[in-house]
Amino acid sequence: MSVRRWLVGIFLPVAALAAGLLPGFAGAADLFPFKSASETYFKLDVPNGTLSASINVAFLNGSGTLNSLPVWILPAATDVVIKQDGAVLETKITPGTEKPGIAGIAVATLSKPLKPNLKTTLTATYNVPSHTGSLLRMEAGAMELPFMGQGQGSFVFVDVPRDGENYFDPGCLVAADQPKDVKDAGAERWVCGDVPTIALNADDSSVLNRCANLDDACRQRSTISVFSAFVQSITDESKRGLLEADVQMKDSTVHMVLKYFKQDKTWADKQWAIAQAAFPKLEATFGYAYPFKTVTMLQSHHIEIAGAAGIAFPSLGEVLLATGTGFDEEVTIHELAHQWAGFNLEAPWLWEGLAEYGIRTVAPQVAVTPRPRNWQRFGFKDALINMYNGSAVFEPDYWYGKAGDFWFAFQAAIGGPDNMRTVLSYMGSEKDRWPLDARWFMDRGEGQSGANLDKLFTDWVFNQDTSAGLLAQRRAAHDLVKTLTDRAATMGLSGVPSDIYDNLEAWVFEPVAGQAQRANQVLDSYAGVVKLGEESSLGQSTAVSQSWGKKTIAQTGGVVEDQRQAIQAIVGARKQLGDQAPDFAAKKLTEAATAYASGDFSGAKRLAADSLTAVFNEGASAKMIELAKAKQSSFKVGFLSRVGLFFKDPDGDLQKAESAYASGDSAGALKYARAAYDGWDGAGGRGIQRLAILAGIMCALSVSVWLLLKKLDGPSSAGPMKRAGQGHYLDPADERARSWRDWENTP
User: Global pTM?
Assistant: First the structure.
């Protein structure tokens, strides 16, 4: 934001006016002895340049008896009517004024006094004819004006032509509910509540949805203003001012738009030329790409009443520009600079100071001369961190001038424009850290240049009394880490272990001393490993250097230990094998050394062990093949051995063993030779075992059949014994008498 003066002139005159008009009010301190909630509806007839307003406001008396109540109205309001319970009230109207933006007020005498803790509701209507002034610009086909609610607790609704070109200040939303009569009239309804809250949450869809659906939490919260937000609506194409073009940036094209009132074409053409030239140069100054595909500039007459010459909305890629400030060109560059220095920064001195840095860097390149701030003339000593935050100083030239000069002092301290551009470019590459604070810039400046910035930030930014202790801790921690990193550099290691780095970034310095001690112990171990590598002719691996600046101390310590074990495994294997190692074992050792060099220490240890195993397997497999052949030649075929060889193929296994041995696969040869030997050696035993199993199965089957037949015979008490000669008579009435032996006799 660019400001002309830090003021609240738009608000305080309203309070003073009301204090003199409301009976029984002693002054502004007693201005609102009631609470209110209101809805104000504006219908804009843009083709004719007029509007109508209707108001519904509920009052709760929180003090003494009230005989009258106020309703705020726009300057130039006419036909004001206020009602209570349908009855028109006697009303005293004090018109507002265009400058310095004082609201009008209509004080209605109540039909009967309102006693404490009682409620009442007033309704009001008024019109505003076509009007051109410093605050209201209303002509046929084009309107620009502020809305006016009833202060705290207000919702303001605005109906604008749906087919018009409409722009609302950020903080107003399309209402979720679009009444039928509004749609039938070809209009669209917007709602404005607590404008700052909505504007600051432009990227939070949940907040926007609640406010668009008129959540009471979205009603206006401020008590010092009845002005809510602003609209620009144009239906006459001849009065529509628009400039647009593609601007070539370093690696992309950005579509630039300037919307303005056509009567101000001379102003617009000048700002347009400056904006087109300055925008790519600002990107180069800040060192990282503009994040959007478009940038939109909007002329605004109304922001001046809040003391603003320009307002930027970096999260939307939009800026508002005032007209006739006396330094419009500077404002244009300043607000465009906020597209890089805005919501990504934590505090006002950061975003305004860097915008000033952007102006003073780019302006000479586009033939603009920034006005001198001369901030030293005020004699203030307030630290930048207190800009509009705990300081009694509100002079913009002091804050903007000092904040801008700081960044040039910072640039000089870290070695000049190239280092400055690099530091600023980190803003774009470290978006996960947004919003960035003073500590981030101090860390990045020192990291880029190696300079000690304690005095610079103490003199300009921090409160000296409260920051001295923390800065001393920081310096001690950074000195320890510098000693550590200098030692690591002699070993070919760069960077800082991640757990130390995280504490430095968070400005948590107490653990750093212990961490530095542990890191030095890791370096001690690494020095020993380096020596082992040299003595073993294995040399060094890249694994530790890749871990040191990216992983924790403990993780890097683990890598060092793995490297030590890998060296020992390879050296141990070499000693055991000696100089006469077979080719296949030597090949494994070569592969182990290659894995070691690449940082695959687990693979190196495995391959070193494999070289020893391969030698063992080579001898063992030869012996096992001979044993298998001997067993084959002595094997006698018999009934039991034939049974034992079912599902076995020792002859085939022996052939596979010999083939594997011939190809150098000693492990495979050993496996197949052992299988062949076991096949012949245990054939008789397996035959007996298999026959025993078969006999057991047959016995079990026989017993099962016997039990089944016994069950089919039935119990012995199934019936009376039959007389001799009667045969196998089956009594059909007695099923128990049936037997499996009689099935064939069943009739």
Answer: 0.72
Say which residue, 244 or 622, is predicted with more confidence: 244
DSSP 298-325: EE-SGGGGGTEEEEEETTTTEEEE-SS-
**How far is it, in rounded angstroms, from Cα 697 to Cα 345?**
85
The pLDDT tens digits for 187-216 are 999 999 988 788 777 778 899 999 999 999
Give the list of residues 6+ apart from residue 89 with CB closer than 8 angstroms, or none: 82, 83, 108, 109, 110, 111, 122
Instruction: Look at residue 103 in the predicted model and tell me its pLDDT.
Output: 86
Smallest CA-to-CA distance from 477 within 453, 442, 447, 501 is with: 501
d(C-alpha 189, C-alpha 43), whole Å: 9
Return the ∠ at Cα 219 (arms to 217 and 223), rounded to 5°: 115
Size of the chain, expressed as the number of residues it contains: 747
Alpha-carbon span 466 to 108, nearest angstrom: 54
Cα 652 to Cα 38, 43, 664, 687: the distances in Å are 98, 99, 19, 20
Cα within 13 Å of Cα(365), Cβ side: 16
- For the stretch 465-502, what's the b/e string if a residue is b when 16 or more beta carbons lie within 10 angstroms of its beta carbon? eebeeebeebeebbebbeebbeebeeeebeebbbbbbe
Closest-CA residue to 628 (of 666, 656, 663): 656
**Residues 605, 569: contact at Cβ < 8 Å?**
yes
pLDDT attached to residue 18: 41
| Mean of pLDDT values over 696-701 | 88
Angstrom distances, CA of residue 328 to CA of 325, 333, 335, 341 = 6, 9, 11, 19
Task: Give dist(CA 456, CA 454) in Å, integer.
Answer: 6
3-class DSSP state of 372:
coil
Joined together, the tokens standing for residue 346 give 């934590």
> Rounded to whole angstroms, how far apart are CA atoms 384 and 347?
10
Cα distances (angstroms) measured from residue 271 to each of 3, 19, 258, 304, 323: 18, 43, 9, 17, 10
DSSP reduced 3-state for 693:
helix
Render 717-741 in DSSP notation, one character per residue: TSSPPPPTT--S---TT-GGG--GG
What's the burial of 663, exposed, middle or buried (CB within 10 Å: 0-12/13-18/19+)? Answer: exposed
Between CA 353 and CA 427 the distance in angstroms is: 15
- pLDDT at position 740 is 55
Helix (H) or strand (E) holding 74: none
DSSP state of 363: G
Peptide bond into 100 cis (omega under 30): yes
CB atoms within 10 A of CB 615: 19
3-state secondary structure 547-573: HHCCCCHHHHHHHHHHHHHHHHHHHHH
Tens digits of residue pLDDT in 41-89 = 999 999 999 999 999 999 999 888 999 999 999 999 999 999 999 999 9
pLDDT at 26: 29
Type of residue found at 268: A
Helix/strand number for the chain, H first, E second = 22, 22
Q: pLDDT tier at 618 (50, 70, 90 boundaries)?
A: low
